[in-house]
């Protein structure tokens, strides 16, 4: 029978469900209500506008349009009883728990008391209806009572993990007094702050049988290094690599099966997806929360590994035959998803911004799952929510998956687009604190003192090398293979057609520009600038750049930032025609603070004996050609910083410099512009205008007694120079 499926919801989870359902040979149509831009048009998938709070009209529409199965994505309709209404008023099966069973998510106070009653491990807690009583509990508890939860549904935003007791009390008052989550905050749960890795374990159940999906980990904090405010999820990896089959079986038995049996014993038979949010503590796994539906963004990664027919499993849950139709996942692969969010999220943000780059990402073999998107009048995808979409990569190993997903997310463009650069990075390290709770709480200290104990992460360094190897490969040229992995390289001058030449080299850094770029996440520009400064200096001597080496020093290696720097170096090398042959990454805690870093570069070039630039050849009547500058050079940032300090200014307040963005435009690389003329013998001298300006740098390349006339009236003055001039 050709199945017509109604899928309720509009997020990334629903797009993933619609995509997976559409692959079923028994499905002829998936209607998504209300859906998003990703589910709007497709061979089998389309959107439909329904009044989802009016269950009667939804049921009637299903009957009239031949719907044979209903899948409910979000928690609100489940908690409001959509499954109950359909079962009482139609013969159409619905996948999801009843309102009574959905209390496991909809009422956090109920869920916590249920856990205690059925001896399922969880954090210590107390529920409150009075804000003062909750604050007294926070202040007097003999443990860190720093997690505050609105008991009701708050669209995944009703949890505050406070850093101090004062912050926890403020969260209580916002929920209960200011009612920031409405009626959801009439009761709050205050609970113990648990320590350890957090894992999402989802399972299908028909009310008796429990079938696990591969474990996943959501990255909830907005910023890299798990910093910033909590969000609905910035990305997920699946499977979570630090749980063994034995450990998963223990969680299945002690948590999920106990929960399903406990709910059934209370007359709340649970059918659907049961999602356990777990903390893997030293004392074992403990339940942070339950959800009564598929997670978001975990679903996008989990379903990307599903090999079997999703509809078959969903129908088996509803019919009570899951034991005969358990799902099959390919856990030999890894799926990594990176969420792209609107600027300002999780606070206020703009909507209706045109999105570009989606087709480019999908052509590369990645999958883009839409969330907060819609189509404008012209059919273009535009933003309509905080979490806009997720880019998912499926690869044979974790390194490749997280790298490709992050790279793909960077190609998605709209005004204010933002994504984390470190999704999955923590798993690429051999050791993870507090990750192991079974097998006698494996004592890693028995390994003896490690480099990591001194703040040097060798595994992160090794991973960085693997990530940047393809970048170096892109820069190969005649005379050099650019096979990165060492501290230096070999160059064959004869193979490059330079058997008779003079070698010259230059080494430079980027200076204070690094601090400006770091604050704005423009690490790529730093790498590009580093190459530009060095190779432009080679041109002063008429040299053709041959190869480049970099030095990256930091207090704590942050792989995504370092990767972006090297990505910029590689692009600079491509523009300069030189090979990136090697370099050094030095992690030196104590020398640098945290993720602060500095860079230096060495460029080596060749000058054919026939092309040595001789300043004595410059003569009266020779033309002086000025090449346009892209903006401030690295030396200029010392002056810029002094100006800002002297006038107590902030870049965001400067008119005409776009919040500092114009200051960070990469330095122009002049190799392609100048080298052909040099090879043709038309260039007698070349002045690189750096810190000394025109008055110091031009005389260096002129014979004694000779000067130049410059017509500055013909130059275009970038706004930043005009602003500095008039300060």
Structure explained in plain terms:
This protein is of the alpha+beta class. Helix content is 30%, strand content 20%. The protein contains 21 helices and 26 strands. The protein has a five-stranded parallel sheet. The chain has a five-stranded antiparallel sheet with strand order 12-15-18-22-19. A four-stranded antiparallel sheet has the order 6-9-7-8, sandwiched between helices. Helix 14 runs parallel beside helix 17 (559-576) and helix 16 (523-539) runs parallel beside helix 17 (559-576). The longest helix is centred in the middle third of the chain and has 21 residues, at 245-265. Residues 430-449 and 655-659 have low confidence and may be disordered. GO terms for molecular function: ATP binding; metal ion binding; phosphoribosylamine-glycine ligase activity; phosphoribosylformylglycinamidine cyclo-ligase activity. One of its GO terms (cellular component) is cytosol. In the N-terminal section; belongs to the GARS family.
